[in-house]
Amino acid sequence: MLLAVDIGNSAIKFGLFERETLTSKFSIPTKRDATADEIKLAVGDRLSPDIESAIVCSVVPEIDATMRSFIREAAGSDAVFVNNSFDFGLNINYEPLDSLGTDRLVAAYAAYQKYGAPCIVCSLGTATTIDAVGADRDFLGGVIAPGLEAMAEALHLKAPRLPKIETERPDRLIGTSTTQSIRSGVFNGYVAMVEGLIEGMRSEVSGTPTVVATGGNAGLLSSVTVDENLILNGLRNLGDLRD
Known about the structure:
Blueprint: E1 2-7, E2 11-18, E3 21-29, H1 36-43, E4 53-58, H2 64-75, E5 80-81, E6 91-92, H3 102-115, E7 119-124, E8 127-133, E9 138-146, H4 148-158, H5 178-202, E10 210-214, E11 225-226, H6 230-242
Parallel strand pairs: 1-4, 4-5, 6-9, 7-10, 10-11
Antiparallel strand pairs: 1-2, 2-3, 7-8, 8-9
């Protein structure tokens, strides 16, 4: 059994694979100063004792050493941490390479493996990343923008008299109170931003790219393929290649 771990800014996602099948998954909040014992407590009894190997993608380096220790105890072996030197089967057009988030490469790799190239890969979480893979599997680069929650938080921080709102879908576009107006502006503005960026990116990618979205807000988009397990499955594929 393989354990795949996706360490993001807000959540750590765990996936257990029996060959190609994702048998279970769960997540815990990301806590940058967590100890191995705290991770063990948060995970509880949700990990199988039959783990044979583990592979990790992380964008939170502060927690990497702790996660290594936790996995060593839980799985009895050292985890493989994916980095940008891995062979993703992509011609990467990005400088400097070490500034590119490894999660973006894993997502791009998983998307072209499953859906083919060209493709546009959207990850809608704490940050919004939208990347393009060309027909010849060239990683063309992409865009980085705030996530939905970050937009709401930034507005409140920069304009304290405006209340912090819950980022839920409004009933209508035109708000009849300050709270409703902010909610509509943040929510609908975010969706319009992402969909506009996707359409703009289509014009710069040859062919007809498949648009794949993952992350907590992926379901907000229309006319895209939502794949909530994209990165976990990408990690599983990379783990299989290294066996």
